Amino acid sequence: MNKILAVNAGSSSLKYQVFDADTFNVLASGIIERIGKEDAIATIKADGVKEKKVLEILDHKAAVAIALADILEFSSVKNLDEIKGVGHRVVHGGEDFEDSVVVSEDAIAKVDALSSLAPLHNPANLTGYYAFKEVLKEARHTFVFDTAFHQTMEPKAFLYALPYEYYEDYQVRKYGMHGTSHKYIAKRTAELLNKDIEDVNTIVCHLGNGASLAAIKGGKVIDTSMGFTPLAGVMMGTRTGDVDPAVFPYLLEKTGLSVDDQMRIYNHESGMLGISGLSNDAREIEDATNAGQERAVLTSDMYAYKIANYIGTYFIHLGHVDAIVFTAGIGENDAGVRARVIDNVSEALKIKFNHKLNSEVRGIEVELSEADSEVKVFIIPTDEELMIAQDTKRLLGL
Ligand code: ADP
């Protein structure tokens, strides 16, 4: 039986899942954290068993060796030759990739060149690829890009109103992120509605630590909230989301904060954390909001309001919305966030929302709207690894 490995390699972590290429059953899933340290952690779940060990893993090559040894020891995969396809998540595909691709020298060179747009991610993604390629020589490899699904946006949506040469010379434009998740959700929403994806308009709210919304018309993204980088769009756990760029030089002048300091603040000390002064974790914000803590309430209100702004805009551009879908850590689990977001938009969109059901469910695929709601509301747990495996199977014809 053919197997597909889905890989997400970060700078100090490696996540993987092994799928049966026919059924897409997950045969093993694992994560190696703290790569580069003497006390790295390797965890694998397979056949209902969870194994965790702490050991020295100094580089990605060593991490891959551990991952593959664990797969052979704990899962039903008994020979590495069974792994016919390996799909690698790559964060930035720029304008070069509007779909996943089979890895080639040309693709590698382009991913490498795009490192200037994603310096923390693309090099790590390539390191992961090289490490697996060295061991799984016979398997064929694919790249699955976070940005690719958003490449259907038109220039009027993706351009910033800067002088055009900054786009031409430096590729400054909106790219969007979480594309693999948005693509999976768009596909799954059409399945749940029992319609062809071409006939379905969806607004996907991918709300995790990082958060982005996408307006998807007939399976194609027409707009998304993240921009040139993952800092843009809605307020997030620690990121600002959209801010007037003139704030940057103003704070530079008033506070003397350097560019690096400000980038750290915009990326790591803002968002829910910055407003609440409490936490970037939605669970803590939710508890404090329920306890009536003033800045937590403000944080919760702001978070929902900013998301509602995008839903409103996307509703206008889609003309007709079949479904609003919540996904990722917060979207799947945080009933309070979902309720506040829908409360902001339900009158305009004629949504009838089942508040009781919403408060009772989390982490499962479920419809939260009433039967006579004009726009349906769903929770759909995202599955980027499955999407990577499906794309890999499609491209390799397994
Ligand atoms: P990312 O992949 O962007 O790191 P996730 O999609 O894993 O993020 O989402 C992580 C966030 O989800 C956490 O920071 C937390 O705020 C939120 N979250 C997770 N579980 C719950 C829960 N039970 N209730 C509310 N929020 C939750």
Describe this structure in words.
This protein has 398 residues and is of the alpha/beta class. It has two domains: 3-145, 2-Layer Sandwich (Nucleotidyltransferase, domain 5); 196-379, 2-Layer Sandwich (Nucleotidyltransferase, domain 5), CATH 3.30.420.40. It has 15 helices and 14 strands. It has an eight-stranded mixed beta sheet, sandwiched between helices. A six-stranded mixed beta sheet has the order 11-10-9-12-14-13, with helices on both faces. α11 (294-318) packs across α13 (335-349). The longest helix has 25 residues, at 294-318. The N and C termini lie close together (10 Å). The relative contact order is 0.11. The chain binds adenosine-5'-diphosphate (ADP). Adenosine-5'-diphosphate binds at residues 208-210, 237, 281-283, 286, 328-330, 333-334.
Keywords:
398 residues, alpha/beta, Nucleotidyltransferase, domain 5, 2 domains, 41% helix, binds adenosine-5'-diphosphate
